[in-house]
Write a structure and sequence with these properties.
The protein has 458 residues and is α/β, with parallel strands linked by helices. It has helices at 42-45, 80-86, 106-117, 132-141, 157-167, 192-209, 230-234, 281-286, 333-347, 372-384, 410-419, 429-434, 449-452, and strands spanning 4-10, 16-17, 33-39, 74-75, 90-91, 95-100, 123-127, 149-152, 171-175, 212-218, 237-242, 249-257, 265-271, 274-277, 296-303, 306-318, 326-329, 354-360, 392-394, 397-398, 404-405, 424-428, 442-446. It folds into three domains: 4-42; 75-279, Rossmann fold, CATH 3.40.50.300; 285-456, Ribosomal Protein S5, domain 2 (2-Layer Sandwich). 26% of the residues lie in helices and 27% in strands. A hairpin with a 5-residue loop joins β20 (397-398) and β21. α9 packs across α10 (372-384). The chain binds thymidine-5'-diphosphate and magnesium ion (MG). Magnesium ion binds at residues 106-107, 129, 175.
Length: 458
């Protein structure tokens, strides 16, 4: 079309190129180029005026000692699991990006929190994807009364801003940022340029007027947030909504949070009445656990301040192919390969003729090395067809020599295991060598993975 041309833009640093490239020459990132259409007419190609995200009339440098520590005022969202991830509630004037796959429950979550936020705040819900009627139908099903809630079904940025000027909300919800478009930019909604400029305008407005803003962001095929990477730098917190669509569990975690820790997770269950908080995730993750079955072991991971007990499963099956498969779901693939290598080298177990599949139940992703001992036991158990006792939990990090290293917060982990009915815990010897505690369950201290084998009666 006349006046328009196709360019490729790096979604990480917004470098422009006439051709697609695998690696960005500017930021050296791979696979970041996305196709975009821009206008070539001179008045439209002029770079839009840079907007500042921090409204400040003073441009003077201030002495460090004169800086004041701001006091964050937080609003409770009515979902304590979400408040926990946010660091204790939604901070006034902050901008939060909520990302997740389509249908995971982002709009449901946001509609649910409108009930509590609307108690003493004015909420403006901007929907670019659903009609007002659809929203009302859902809100009714979720038991949202809609007090202090205003709905605007609009995608044009200028119209949104002028409506916001009239309503003067305390909280704005944008569902979703990929549907919003700025007339000044000629590319299509959802393109890198549109998302970047619309988000920048909305964020600067939010910061200027002290509005708390919740932005919904779609994810692309690779699982990253669709649009420019800079979007994540612009906001105060990035929350990821995860879970298997076919299962009812949903986990929300903070990938970035300027007002709290990023370790916390919030667990929900999707029901016909919307998202219900799961205050005790361990019980949920352990429900339906097979009894006396080889290839599974309980483990304990610390997510933020909470110990969470989950089950790791391993399936070791013979293969005829020269390169056996190693599949890791819920744990790091490299960590799995490392544990297999340690077991082969130190215990002489033969995994090289077997495919290995591992899975952490409930869609949980465990990155803590303290889960190594449980993964190793699940692997050995599946290989040797001997079940790990159902009432046993394994905690410990494995070193390359097969030694079992100390872990943090052992007492907290063991107490959670005792609460859930476990009677034995394999723990690193180093942890209880100097300091013992009233564990309430039998502790089996191990020096190395070799000692752990005794648990399986080998
Ligand atoms: P939605 O919030 O529309 O997802 P997103 O905004 O992330 O795309 O959630 C849609 C899914 O949630 C849909 O598949 C139906 C399911 N759902 C329930 O199971 N119960 C409910 O009460 C609601 C509102 C949705
Ligand atoms: Mg939605």
């Amino acid at each position: 079309m006349k006046g328009l041309k196709t360019v490729y833009i790096c979604s990480n640093c917004t470098y422009h190129s006439p051709k697609w490239m695998g690696k960005c020459p500017s930021c050296n990132q791979w696979n970041t180029f996305v196709e975009d259409v821009i206008s070539t007419s001179p008045e439209e190609t002029a770079t839009p005026k840079r907007k500042s995200m921090i409204s400040s009339t003073e441009n003077r440098a201030i002495s460090y000692s004169d800086l004041e520590i701001p006091e964050y005022i937080r609003s409770q969202t009515g979902l304590s699991e979400l408040d926990r991830v946010l660091g204790g509630g939604l901070v006034h004037g902050s901008v939060v990006l909520i990302s997740g796959e389509p249908g995971i429950g982002k709009s449901t979550l946001l509609m649910q929190i409108c009930e509590c936020l609307g108690a003493n705040k004015k909420v403006l819900y901007i929907s670019g994807e659903e009609s007002g009627g659809q929203l009302k139908l859902r809100a009714k099903r979720l038991g949202v009364s809609g007090r202090n809630l205003f709905v605007l079904t609009e995608t044009n940025l200028d119209s949104i801003l002028s409506e916001a000027d009239k309503i003067k909300p305390d909280i704005m919800i944008i569902d979703s940022i990929q549907t919003i478009y700025d007339d000044a930019i000629k590319s299509a909604p959802g393109s890198v340029a549109q998302v970047r400029e619309s988000a920048l305008t909305l964020i600067s407005r939010a910061k200027g007027d002290g509005i708390s803003m919740l932005l919904v962001g779609h994810v692309n095929k690779e699982g990253g947030i669709a649009g420019p990477k800079v979007l994540e730098h612009m906001v105060d917190a990035v929350l990821c909504f995860e879970g298997e669509k076919l299962q009812s569990y949903r986990i929300i975690r903070a990938n970035k949070n300027r007002f709290g820790s990023t370790n916390e997770i919030g667990v929900f269950e999707m029901t016909d009445k919307g998202l219900i908080e799961v205050g005790n995730p361990s019980e949920m993750l352990l429900s339906g656990r097979p009894k006396n079955t080889p290839g599974n072991c309980a483990m304990c991971t610390i997510e933020g301040t909470r110990p969470i007990i989950a089950e790791v499963q391993a399936l070791v099956s013979t293969t005829v192919f020269p390169a056996p498969r190693r599949t890791a779901n819920g744990i790091d693939h490299n960590r799995l390969c490392l544990i297999i290598a340690v077991l082969e080298k130190r215990l002489g177990l033969k995994f090289y003729q077997n495919d290995v599949y591992t899975n952490v139940i409930g869609g949980l992703y465990v990155s803590e090395p303290a889960s190594d001992a449980a993964i190793a036991l699940a692997l050995i158990s599946s290989l040797t067809d001997k079940a790990v006792p159902d009432d046993l939990i394994a905690i410990g990090e494995l070193g390359l020599s097969g030694e079992c290293r100390a872990v943090s917060n052992l007492e907290q982990r063991v107490k959670e295991a005792a609460r859930l009915g476990f009677t034995k815990a394999v723990v690193p010897y180093k942890n209880i060598e100097k300091r013992s505690f009233d564990a309430q369950i039998e502790l089996i201290p191990i020096h190395s993975i070799y000692d752990a084998l005794k648990v399986l009666g080998r």
